[in-house]
Amino acid sequence: MDEQKQQTHIQTICVHGEEKHRDPFGAVVPPLYTATTFSQSEPGNPIGPFEYSRAGNPTQAVLEAKLAALEQAEKALVYASGLSAVDAVLRTLDVGDRVIVCDDVYGGTLRLCTRLHADKEFVFLDLSEPEALSSYLAKSEGSTKLIWTESLTNPLLKRIDIAKIVDIAKPYGIKVAVDNTFLTPFFEQPLTLGADLVMHSATKYLGGHSDVLMGAIMTSDRQWYDQLKFVQFAAGAVASPRDCASLIQHLQTLHVRMPVHEKNAQQLNARLNEHPAVVESLHRGSGMLAVRLKKPISDFSQLAIFQLAESLGAVESLINLPEKMTHASVPAERRQALGITDTLLRISVGLEHFDDLWSDLKSLIVQAGD
To answer: Among residues 66, 175, 204, 346, which one is catalytic?
Structure first.
């Protein structure tokens, strides 16, 4: 990216991105192009830069430019879901390639790695302890091609020091990819810490309204980008233009939403850690909480504001029981070893008033008391 783009504040990028002055009619909102195909003046010679929406679309291009700017990347690609973005990255590897993955990884990513990409070798390490990575690489035979980590892990909220992971990986020539879904570029920009690629489930905080299903990849590695672009075109897991238009709009308030998510989560975390039914509540950034209770919750039906649902990062507050919901596909012995049990709640704190949130949550967790 050029110097001017790097110096632009994130608030301005959220509002304007790269779309300002692009529309020939002066529209202040980027137009939605729903066309699936574009005219050609002669065979093989499109009138403009687009020929078929699986290969690119004007609305998609505006969104990708904004996402690249948010993560200080040169390029971005958007996909039909977060997992399709992860899948695209893994498709750029060869059979037998080794990938180191953070042990507390999203259950869907784990399933994708072990079930659909079983032709690669996956090693799971606690990357919140960088010395575990150093020790493994010093002793391992063969070469590792990729480290896949989450900046804030799901669901245990381990905070990964990306800069340290990069420092350890680079002497071995290992690329580092970061799922930055939980922290978002508002709180952390992994490429500025040395990572090679950033991925988001844009369904979550970037979208922020539970109405867009999308994944995104941002990178300044042009060779890797070209590989990913080919996979996107050939496999076809592209985001729809309508979802792209929605995400462009939702990103305009990212910088307004994230501080409120975080403040509400900080306040709830403090109250939860004082409650007799709570063993421990963790908050390590963004609007996410990992809450371990003394006893399991048996009845969620009295909740008035929080909703029992998967996903996260939207304006409404959600409660998730990972053991039976987002991480149900993780083998039971692995869940047990990580501490993903029936007493663990993952809470996505929304934008409602704190007093209302605390009143609702307190009425729920009383079930877990002595």
So the answer is: 204
The pTM assigned to this predicted structure is 0.95
Q: Does residue 205 come out as left (phi exceeding 0), alpha (psi in the -120 to 50 range) or beta?
A: alpha
The single residue of 87, 97, 179, 243 carrying the catalytic annotation is 179
Dihedral of the alpha carbons of 214, 215, 220, 223, in degrees to the nearest 10: -110
HSE at residue 320, side-chain half, CA atoms within 13 A, is 24
Q: CA angle, 105 as apex, 303 and 107 as ends, to 5°?
A: 60
Do residues 181 and 313 touch, judged by C-beta distance below 8 A? yes
Specify whether 172 is catalytic: no
Q: Cα dihedral sign for 106, 109, 114, 119?
A: negative
Strands 144-150 and 175-179: parallel
Residue 106 annotated as catalytic:
yes
Of all residues in the chain, what percent are helix, strand and coil, respectively (each to 5)?
40, 20, 45
Identify which of 170, 178, 204 has the alpha carbon closest to the alpha carbon of residue 312.
204
Q: Report mean pLDDT in 10-residue bins for the chain, 370 residues.
A: 60 83 79 95 94 95 96 98 98 98 96 97 97 96 95 97 98 97 98 98 98 98 98 96 97 98 98 97 97 96 96 98 95 94 98 98 91
Catalytic entry in 75, 79, 104, 106: 106
Distance, C-alpha 121 to centroid of its chain: 23
Q: Is 115 a catalytic residue?
A: no
How distant is the alpha carbon of residue 276 from its chain centre? 33
Q: Which of 54, 98, 295, 334 is catalytic?
A: 54
Q: Is 179 labeled as catalytic in the residue annotation?
A: yes
